[in-house]
Amino acid sequence: MARRPYIVGNWKMHGTRAMLSEARAIDRAAQRLLKVEVAIAPPYTLIHPIHREAELIAVGAQDCHEAEGGAFTGDISAAMLADAGAQFVILGHSERREGHGESNALVRAKTEAALNAGLKIILCCGENAATRAEGKAVDFVRRQLKASLPASAAELADASDRITIAYEPIWAIGTGNTATLEDIAEKHSAIRALLVDLFGDEQGGDMRILYGGSVKPENAGEILRVADVGGALVGGASLTADSFMGIALAVGEPNES
Ligand code: PEP
Fold it and tell me: Which ligand 1 atom is the nearest neighbour of the CA of 214?
């Protein structure tokens, strides 16, 4: 069954309470675009306020700790996120993998913790410019994803409807260099094949694979028409309701009414 395009804003370390007005505007606009599923992942401090006010959009986090609790100063568990109103968490973003040294094994532990806490996850993967130049991107992405997903097959089967994959080539993030449509098609089709291998035809065929990397209103329509692209993970262009909902509008027509 084809699922609605999923447009997710990753606010990164941007946003104080002054940004709540943007979240409200995104929520209002999303109510006129019911053919698209819209969500935002603000900084931790804004999860609860946005959850309290939002009528339609989902709110999520950008990371969580792999443990249920304990002496981990400055960290936050998946259960705490759920308690604050988060419905999902982005895991394995390249800014965490590169900037915080997160290995595939650590990302796997986090995916397991988040799924056990009842959250949905958006699991990120993507190669850097050097790997791409060597022609090894597809192989790299497959290995990275396989090693970051939960290890247990039973856990996988149980969780497939709560797992979304985001393909985000590192060289395209925040650079204005969007991947070509051919690049996107090649990686998404390889990821789809991996998901079918791991989850079977039905579940693996149904899971959404988002593209991320300099998506904006001007390029969202053509990117979302590429086979196996089920939505977009958006950084910079998600920070204002105008540009973020411009992306959603490029993908889904407004409802009649
Ligand atoms: C991201 O960091 O997830 C991202 C896709 O950023 P941008 O849209 O700014 O490239």
Answer: 10
